[in-house]
Amino acid sequence: MTNDSVSIYERIGGHDAIAAVVDDLYVRIMDDPQLAGFFTGTNLTKLKGRQVEFFSAALGGPDAYDGGAMDEVHRGRGIEQHHFDLVADHLVASLKGAGVDADTVDEIIGVVAPLSGAIVPGTHT
C-alpha cells in the first residue's frame, strides 16, 4: 500500500535514487545501438543533471526543472515513436533494477508516457 500524501519522489528514495536511476538509464541507452547515435557529441553530465531535475520535478520532488520545453529540445532529431518506447523500456529496467516496485514503476511511466506527444514529431494530441 502506498500513502497518497507521500510523493513518488519520496517513495523511491529522493534525489540520490533518481540520480542512480538516471545514471543506469544512460548506460542502457548508450549501449543500445538504436539510441546511442542520438547522443553523439552530447554533454552527458549536463544531460543527466537535467534529467534528474526533470524526474525530481515530475515526481513531486523539490528540484525545479529549468531545461527547455520538451518539444524544443527534441525538435529535428529524427526521434520516432519506437525510439521513445525503447527509452521507456530502458527506464522501466533501470527503475526495477533500483528496486522500485511494479506499481510505482507503472505510476512513473504514467507520468512519462504522455511526453511522447512533445518529443515525437507528429504525435501531438
Q: What would a concise description of this structure say?
A:
It comes from Streptomonospora salina. Keywords: Heme, Iron, Metal-binding, Oxygen transport, Transport. The protein has 125 residues and is mainly α.
Task: Please describe the structure with a list of short key phrases separated by commas or semicolons.
Globin-like; 125 residues; 0% strand; mainly alpha
Structure characterization notes:
With 125 residues, the protein is mainly alpha-helical. It has one domain (11-119): Globins (Globin-like, Orthogonal Bundle). The chain has helices spanning 8-11, 14-30, 44-58, 70-74, 81-97, 102-112, 116-119.
> What is the CA–CA distance across the termini?
33 Å
CATH topology term: Globin-like
- Spans of at least 5 consecutive residues whose pLDDT stays below 50 are none
- Topology as a string of helices (H) and strands (E): HHHHHHH
Alpha plus pi helix count: 7
Q: Provide the CATH architecture.
A: Orthogonal Bundle
Radius of gyration computed on alpha carbons: 14 Å
Structural class estimated from helices and strands = mainly alpha
Strand coverage percent: under 5%
* Mean pLDDT rating: 88
> For this structure, what is the CATH class?
Mainly Alpha
CATH superfamily: Globins
